[in-house]
Specification:
The structure is a homodimer of 149-residue chains. The first copy, chain A, has 149 residues and is an alpha+beta fold. Chain A folds into two domains: 87 residues, Winged helix-like DNA-binding domain superfamily/Winged helix DNA-binding domain (Arc Repressor Mutant, subunit A), CATH 1.10.10; 60 residues, Dna Ligase, domain 1. Chain A has five helices and six strands; from the N terminus they run αβααββββαβα. In chain A, a hairpin with a 5-residue loop joins strand 4 and strand 5. The first copy, chain A, is globular. Strand 6 of chain A pairs antiparallel with strand 6 of chain B. The complex binds manganese (II) ion (MN) (2 copies) and zinc ion (2 copies). One zinc ion binds next to helix 5 of chain A. The first copy, chain A, binds a DNA duplex (30 and 30 nucleotides) through helix 1 and helix 3.
Chain lengths: 149, 149
Amino acid sequence: MPGPHRWRKRFEGHICRWTMPREAILDLLSRTTKHLSAKEIYANLLQIYPGIGLTTIYRTLDLLEKTGMIKKFNFRQGENRYEFAGEQRPHHHHLICTSCGKIIDYSDFAEEELELVEKSAKQLAEKYKFLVQDHNIEFYGLCQQCQKD
Amino acid sequence: MPGPHRWRKRFEGHICRWTMPREAILDLLSRTTKHLSAKEIYANLLQIYPGIGLTTIYRTLDLLEKTGMIKKFNFRQGENRYEFAGEQRPHHHHLICTSCGKIIDYSDFAEEELELVEKSAKQLAEKYKFLVQDHNIEFYGLCQQCQKD
DNA sequence: CTGATAATGATAATCATTTTCAATAATAAT
DNA sequence: ATTATTATTGAAAATGATTATCATTATCAG
Ligand SMILES: [Mn+2]
Ligand SMILES: [Mn+2]
Ligand SMILES: [Zn+2]
Ligand SMILES: [Zn+2]
């Protein structure tokens, strides 16, 4: 279902109005596998949507995150980064190069990981009475290129 | 070995001069199990060390992190937090309450976790040629108190 | 088509962190 | 111990990401 209202139905119940910036931002994120910052999204959209405001980018990203359509990450870099989180995209974690900032998705070990995470969630609930809602696993190090330099 | 030079030898080779702010900051962190922000450290030290500057706190924290004596965390809160990382403190991960910000250390599952992490590091090195140097695992959710509210 | 009002975008404000730079203090040299 | 060297400090200003304000605009129910 292409067109300006592709994502609209995903929103019903969450917000009132479907607008151009919302479509554009979600569309951009859905088309890339990159982890974009607000400013990168802004720079990208300025070309096809001159006049869009950085403020709106931030607001919309918050909104999309709350509805669960995108995910927000802080990779120890100055700015937060966002990625699309549709069901097409498998659950995964990240490798972050501390030298050049490159981010690699990986979904290896999904099974062992899920096992550990679920076991952990259960036991942490018992021991600390903590209700686990989300988890984050990341590896920091050097990418292939940066190991050479 | 108490006294103003308790931590001094840990620094040799890393920095030139051992100073009061450095001792004070490291001492504070070594005495608490909390995860303090720069501003919290500043507020704490002002009492015993009037005149200390927030700038120095930031600089010293950077320095201590580089030597590996403390660890820096971003828990999706506005500010970074720091904790002491001596050998007395076991390797552990965190539960973060998204409602009140409470942070709980846990070191359960250490064995399974270590196993998974090491296996992952090895395979990620092969598949992505990525050199893993550090990892981070965290669970987000609600603490006991916040589940009631 | 029209009105109510949610959403936008320019601007200013905030907040954590970093930079600058003159003054100070830790250490090496005397 | 005294002095000289220069790393370190702290006040102030700068930065950079994000958020708040508010008048204007655009969506959409009626
Ligand atoms: Mn990803
Ligand atoms: Mn901890
Ligand atoms: Zn790299
Ligand atoms: Zn809580």
